[in-house]
Specification:
By secondary structure, the chain is α/β, with parallel strands linked by helices. It folds into 2 domains: 35-62 and 80-93 and 176-324, 3-Layer(aba) Sandwich (Rossmann fold); 102-174, no CATH class. It has 13 helices and 12 strands. It starts with 10 loop residues before the first strand and ends in a 9-residue tail after the last helix. The relative contact order is 0.14. Bound molecules: adenosine-5'-triphosphate. Adenosine-5'-triphosphate binds next to helix 1. Keywords: ATP-binding, Cell membrane, Membrane, Nucleotide-binding, Transport.
Length: 333
């Protein structure tokens, strides 16, 4: 279950909880670790807290939000960093790949300005040298005509090209951790695959750790080592990505898998009943109890903890009996 290496975690999240200014809890009991070069997918429906948990790492939460629990990077507490430490952490250790490159890019500035700004301003690199470096970085993400691209504005590039520019910009600062929040959802399907392949290749080449937020279990399984399935502000299952589509142990993970169109089978997707809850809407019991076909009395009153079951971590009172009979994906209530 742990990453194949015994290295210390680069990012270590322990019992993270976030309450908004109005008192609503949006994240609770979230723990995971990512080691250097390791990648984790945070998967779940809308509102489950995936983006919030990335924003917490960067300390970019909505004003007035309160954080409890630990977020440490390379052994240092992110929550305890002062402003200049935080600025250095954001500029040099961690990079965010945005969801929609068009919203993230400044429309009036050239791609060249965007890519060279950090090098010229913060690192004192000469403009010509910074441009040459930017051209090399563009080539690395599959943009061969960099010299010309540097003179262009964001609207002159397709969404796919612009997202490659964002990846090049993220890598320019030589970060150790990439945070990617639905990095391909704003792109068309074929472009999505190309951009994801480049991100994956670059991540491996530079041995970067990555946390990838997505609602797409198959995408997460293809490019991450482990997957944390989130529901209502918490992790309900954490397991190795490989084989998760066969070995899901939490009823929510199984439901997510059943609800997606599976390539190569005749099985029809079956939607999860009801709607996804946010953390503050969940009661005292299991966060998934209202939508779970297997829920019984204790599931509605006592919250299960995320505990080891085989090679998975699972938060379900009934995990042992549900999985005893074989694959949960075949089990009907
Ligand atoms: N800026 C904000 N102010 C107040 N509440 C917010 C804010 N951003 C998110 N929330 C709330 O926090 C909860 C978690 O949202 P979050 O964006 O982390 O979910 P998500 O899993 O990333 O969903 P999506 O896939 O839609 O991005 C939701 O209930 C959401 O409404």
């Amino acid at each position: 279950m742990n990453a194949p290496t015994e290295e210390q975690p680069l990012l270590d999240i322990a019992d993270l909880r976030i309450d908004l200014r109005d008192g609503r809890t949006v994240l609770h009991d979230v723990s995971y670790a990512v080691r250097p070069g390791d990648s984790l997918g945070l998967v779940g429906e809308s509102g489950s807290g995936k983006s919030m948990s990335l924003k917490a790492v960067l300390r970019m939460l909505p004003a007035g939000a309160r954080t409890a629990g630990g977020i440490s990077f390379d052994g240092r507490s992110v929550t305890a960093m002062n402003l200049s430490e935080l600025r250095a952490f954001r500029a040099g250790q961690v990079a965010m790949i945005p969801q929609d490159p068009r919203t993230a890019a400044n429309p009036v500035r050239t791609i060249g300005d965007f890519l060279t700004e950090v090098l010229v301003r913060s690192r004192g690199v000469a403009r010509r040298q910074a441009a040459e470096q930017a051209i090399r970085q563009l080539a690395e993400v599959g943009i061969p005509d960099g010299e010309q691209r540097l003179r262009q504005h964001p609207h002159q590039l397709s969404g796919g090209l612009l997202q490659r520019v964002m990846i090049a910009a993220a890598l320019a600062a030589e970060p150790r951790l990439l945070l990617a929040d639905e990095p391909t959802t704003a792109l068309d399907v074929t472009t999505q695959q190309e951009v994801m392949a480049i991100l994956d290749e670059q991540r491996h080449r530079h041995r970067l750790a990555m946390v990838l937020v997505t609602h797409d279990l198959d995408l997460a399984a293809a490019v991450t080592d482990r997957i944390a399935v989130m529901y209502a502000g918490t992790i309900v299952e954490l397991a190795l990505s490989e084989g998760l589509h066969r070995t899901a142990q939490h009823p929510y993970t199984a439901g997510l898998l059943r609800s997606r169109p599976a390539v190569g089978t005749r099985a029809r997707p079956v939607s999860l009943p009801g709607r996804s809850l946010s953390a503050f809407e969940a009661g005292t019991g299991c966060v998934f109890a209202d939508r779970c076909a297997f829920a019984e009395e204790r599931c509605r009153s006592v919250r299960p903890r995320l505990e080891a079951h085989g090679t998975h971590l699972v938060a379900c009172h009934r995990v042992a009996e549900l999985t005893a009979a074989g694959s949960l994906l075949e089990t009907t209530p």
